[in-house]
Write a structure and sequence with these properties.
105 residues; four-stranded mixed β-sheet
């Protein structure tokens, strides 16, 4: 059994109106590096929790967020995207890229 102070802490927040989850390393580490783990298409930030915790266990602060039109940011994703892939998929990728810059800044 591990001490709760030795366990990484999973946190959910909003950064500039973007829903994020992150895990900070349990121990004070000199590394202080950030890893951004973006979910695959149709994935959510909560589904990335295991990966975030594994990264935190080796000393990284690990963050994931819902890509644009996914999770808390989406509605009817599959129906819209696959009804017109070109029209909807490229904006999803573009806005997700822009959101990643907003989170990191």
């Amino acid at each position: 059994m591990t001490n709760s102070e030795d366990s990484p802490r999973f946190v959910s927040r909003y950064v500039d109106h973007i829903p994020v989850c992150y895990v900070v390393p349990a121990a004070d580490v000199a590394n202080k590096q950030l890893v951004v783990w973006i979910p695959p298409f149709s994935g959510t930030k909560e589904a990335m929790r295991r990966y975030l915790e594994e990264l935190a266990a080796v000393g990284f602060t690990a963050l994931s967020f819902d890509p644009w039109q996914h999770g808390e940011c989406g509605n009817e994703l599959w129906q819209r995207v696959f009804s017109n892939f070109r029209r909807y998929k490229w904006p999803i990728l573009g806005q997700t890229t822009l959101d990643s810059h907003r989170i990191i800044d």
